[in-house]
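Hallway conversation turned thread

IA: we were arguing at lunch whether anyone had actually written out Oxidoreductase end to end. Turns out nobody had. So, for the record, here is the sequence (484 residues) and right after it the C-alpha cells. Reply here if something looks off.
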Amino acid sequence: MQEAATSEATREYDVIVVGAGPVGENVAERTRAAGLRTVIVERELLGGECSFWACEPSKALLRPVVARADALRIPGLRAAAAGPLDVDAVLAHRDRMSSHWKDDSQVDWLDSVSVDLVRGHGRLDGPRRVAVRTAQGDTVHLTARHAVVLSTGTSAATPPIPGLDSVRPWTSREATTSDRAPGRLAVIGGGVVAVEMATAWQALGSQVTMLVLEDGLLQRMEPFAGEMVADGLREAGVDIRFATSVKHLTREGDTDGAVHITLANGEELEADEILLATGRAPRTSDVGLETVGLTPGDWLGVDDTFRVTAVPDGWLYAVGDVNRRALLTHQGKYQARIAGAVIGARAAGEPVDDSPWGAHAATADTAAVPQVVFTVPEAAAVGLTVQEAERTGRRVDVVDYDLARLAGAHQYGEGYRGRARMLVDPERGTVVGVTFVGPGVGELLHSATIAVAGEVPLERLWHAVPAFPTISEVWLRLLETHRG
C-alpha cells in the first residue's frame, strides 16, 4: 500500500473509495482483485463505525451479559453466576475487541491487498474527482478513470427536542465506548441500539429507563419479538415507558450534572446520562454532493448494482448504510462484494448480470436480510414479517412453534422461553420469512437465511435432518406444524 503524499498534485486511479469502514474496505479489496488501481480515503479510523463504535464494542459489552443469563438457568452454574459482573473486566475486554481504538491492523490489511490510502476528509469535486483535505491542511486531488464509491455510512439521528444540544447526550458512540457505568441512564428510543444498550448497561450497574415513542419495541420485527425482549428487560430491572415523548431537556452545571427530563405528560425524570437511539442519518452533508447536482444530507438512491441513479454516466456508486437499503454491516459487505464485481466487470467491458439473484444484483437486500438483536432473550429474523406481507399484498401461511417444547431447548437450562414463526408462500411452497426469539437463536438464523435466499421447497427441507438434541430441531417441528 502506498499512502498518498499530501500535496496539491492530482493523482489518477481506476477507482476511488470514500469511507474505509468494512463496506469501503470490501469494495476496495474487490476492485483491486479485479486488477483496478484503487485508493481509499478515510478521515477517522480504518475499520469505521462497526469496528470501533458499533458492532465490535457493543457485542463485547453484551456477550458477558448474555453468557451470565444463560449460566443462571443451568443447574450447577447458577450460584457461581449469581454475583454482579466484573465491570472493569468487561470494559477491558471491550477495549481489546476494539483494538484500543487503533487501526494498525487495518492498515496492515490494506497494505496486504495493495490498496492505497489517503487519510483526510474526502469530498466530491465534480464528476470523477475527489478532493481530500488532510489533517495537516494540505489537499490531495484524486481522479477516477472508472468509478467513485461513496461508503460514508451513517451517524446518529438527532430528534428536535428543546434543550438537546445543552445536555451533551450520548449517541451510540458514547454508549459503546464509555469507561464507566452511569448511575442512571435514560434511553430515548425502542429500536436495536436502544434495547441492546439498555441490556448492557443495566447489567453493568446502571438503572436504565427507556422512553419509547411507539407502543412496543423492535417495530420492524414480529410483535412478539418486541414483547419478549421487553419482558426480558423488565425482569432485568429496566423501566420501560411506552407511548412516551420528551418535551424538554436540561443539565445541571457544565459537565457532569444531572439531566432533567420533562415528558410530554408533564412528568419529570432525572438521569446521569441520556442516550439518543432514535435512528440513523446519512453522512452526506459534507461530501460534495452539490458538485454533481445532488442535495447534501440526502440518502443516495441506487439501482441494484449500486450506481447512484440521479448521476449521469454511471460513474458514482453508493454502498452500505448511505444508500438506506439495509442498515446492517453484513448487508453492506454483501453490497460491497457485488459493487466491486460490477465495477470490475464494467471496467473490463464484460456483461453485467443484474437479473434477480444474478452475480451483479443485490436481490437479498429486499428478499433475505438477516438480523440478530443481542438481548436477553435474543431475537433473530430474516425475510418477511406478517405485517410486511399484508402491506405488500402477499398471501402467506403463518406457522408458529413454542421453542420451549424442544428437547434441545432444555439443554439451555431451566425456564427456557422462546418462539419461532415461519412464513410460507402457499403457491410456491417456499419459506419467505422466519423469526426466532429465545436464548441461542442467533445461531439458527443462517439456516433460515439459506432457506429464504435459496427458495428451498418445503419438500426438500423435509430431507434436511436436524441433529438431536439441538434447538435446530425447530425446523422439523415447524414443517410438521405446517403439514398439520
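OS: looked through it. The first strand starts at residue 10 and ends at 18.
IA: good, adding that to the notes. The domain at 377-483 is CATH 3.30.390.30 (Enolase-like; domain 1).
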